[in-house]
């Protein structure tokens, strides 16, 4: 089968399409014919191995110390069609259209991927393309996880920082769905996109600083790790929460202390791996309550170009690699 492998850490050009062995499902494994896989910012960070110090050693040990160990294939989430299942699989059968996270082993940038049934896996929503469906699992679970941790209540003021990215585009909509009044922070060129997702107020960070507008929030959700810690804490109400999906080491160290002193919560945690959450998200998509934003799609052969674009850091929602012509 064809897959995008990388045998060195570095720029997009380290990626190459190669023929690799097709996996076969055993036991609780599901073999998926991949139609689409996202190119996440996290994939680019692993490709060039630009990882925050806290995760550097464990990830380097997992992925390969001097260079990627063996045949390493990026790709944290996929959509596709079940081709075969192991003897212990009960939830899926050949022909089912599914979405799934691939976990730390990744391997989504390929024609086939073999995953344990217990991984977050759900039926693909029938009203969207494979390319659109592929953007749900990782960003969707992260957005849902963090907003639930913050215990958003109807009428609360919630600010989403990084509202035009993978997590952000879903977080804006999920916070609205939970009944919050949403302020979204984005650049000038993304204002219409973010407005179309339902944001009540928009702050263009290239012109204004949300922390200097005299407004306060019950929850600030920084999806991209670019908000200034102290200034942000000042605009969160007492008892409110600061969600950091991508915290710096400094913020991880000072967060809990500052939270206790100021009677605010700093939420630093990891989204789990939940098929139930995926099913909840796909239900929202099928009811038309969640729009999936795909900026560009590239065929697998153009993974280098896809990563070059991702490295620019300005995508609208998501970038998707496709392995079949009609993936969307
Ligand atoms: N994606 C996931 O599911 C996931 C899960 C866990 C952790 N993470 C980590 O979270 C980080 C990125 O999250 P993501 O994938 O959701 O983001 P992303 O899609 O990479 O975010 C890119 C978006 O952020 C906007 N942006 C850039 N600078 C900004 C700023 N200063 N203020 C507001 N918006 C800005 C960009 O548009 P403009 O440049 O036009 O502003 C672009 O639309 C990565 O480090 C990743 O490893 C991601």
Provide the residue-averaged pLDDT: 95
Secondary-structure element string: EEEHHEEEEEHHEHEHEEHEHEHEHE
Instruction: Count up the domains.
Output: 2
**Any idea of the CATH class of the largest domain?**
Alpha Beta
Total of DSSP H or I helical runs spanning 4+ residues: 10
Per DSSP E runs of 2 or more residues, the count of β-strands stands at: 16
Q: CATH superfamily of the largest domain, please?
A: Medium-chain alcohol dehydrogenases, catalytic domain
Q: What spatial form do the alpha-carbon principal axes imply?
A: globular
- Report helical residue fraction: 25-40%
Distance between the termini: 21 Å
Bound molecules: NADP nicotinamide-adenine-dinucleotide phosphate
Oligomeric state as shown: single chain
Query: The CATH topology of the largest domain is what?
Result: Quinone Oxidoreductase, Chain A, domain 1
Report the portion of residues in β strands. 25-35%
Q: What would you report as the Rg, rounded to the nearest angstrom?
A: 20 Å
Q: Name the CATH architecture of the largest domain.
A: Alpha-Beta Complex
Which sheet architecture does the biggest sheet show? 7 strands, mixed
Structural class: alpha/beta
- As residue ranges, the low-confidence spans are none
